[in-house]
User: Fold Taurine transport system ATP-binding protein from Streptomyces clavifer.
Amino acid sequence: MPSPDDRRTGAREAGPAGAGAAPSDVTPAVAVREVTHRYGRGADAVTALGPLSLDIPAGEFLVLVGPSGSGKSTLLRLIAGFEHASSGEVTVHGRTPEPGRQAGVVFQQPRLFPWRTVGENIALALRYAGVPRAERPARVEELLERVGLAGTARRRTWQISGGQQQRVAIARALAGGKDLLLLDEPFAALDALTRERLQEDLRTVSSRTGITSVFVTHSVDEAVFLGTRAVVLSAGPGTVALDVPIPLPRTGSEDPDGLRGLPEYAALRAEIGAAVRDAAR
Ligand SMILES: Nc1ncnc2c1ncn2[C@@H]1O[C@H](COP(=O)(O)OP(=O)(O)OP(=O)(O)O)[C@@H](O)[C@H]1O
Assistant:
């Protein structure tokens, strides 16, 4: 899914973790400092997360893995600004996150407007991003091309497959021109083959644009394939159980089978898999 205007941030050129960490004096794209999060009050309160600290440099593709209930989605929601930390601080480019402001978000379900066409769903996001009306059709086509859906703008969302709908959701998240993408198990509901295709395409998009990404998954294989860094959360309330760089080749044109066949790939899978199993005990 190459695009003529692939963006590369300065920090990306400095390199994500795994390809040489960003210098420590650069403000991270996302900073999570001593954060805890509780849902509810009194006797019904659930501590979902923390205390947890994490810096995510610009350009990094951070994958969050961990047992069910370890607080992965909670952490993502805090970074998106959907929740406010009970204690500690979350900042995105040094500022308190606000919903829809700093990040494009993709959920497990595509959440498209069913009465609108594919193109209209994306055009709406462009409108919210302040893109002038006259420029929107060309931008829609460009975004659709980027996610492998060129020529589908006029189709209704119910006329396309679940995998295609999730591609539209990714295009919509990219439409805002944000440099942070938050994805909460976006491929979990898809069949294995479609899931692999989307993983490959997302890896290419992320490698070529350098967009900072935080991706929640239960799949260790998905984590190693997509990430430049993996963080495993302990059983809830989640803290960092393992934090490892994934220094695999990342030009955006790697052969997926070749990547999965690398000995480093198998070693990372084993290390992260063991940490997830330990965390779940
Ligand atoms: N809105 C909510 N109100 C009350 N408790 C919540 C809420 N959302 C999450 N929790 C609780 O917070 C804890 C962490 O949930 P969270 O969904 O963040 O974990 P997770 O690691 O993403 O789980 P999963 O992998 O199952 O999706 C769990 O105990 C969950 O029950």
Remarks:
- The longest strand covers residues 46-56.
- The pocket of adenosine-5'-triphosphate is lined by residues 39-40, 46, 48, 66, 68-74, 236 (CB under 6 Å).
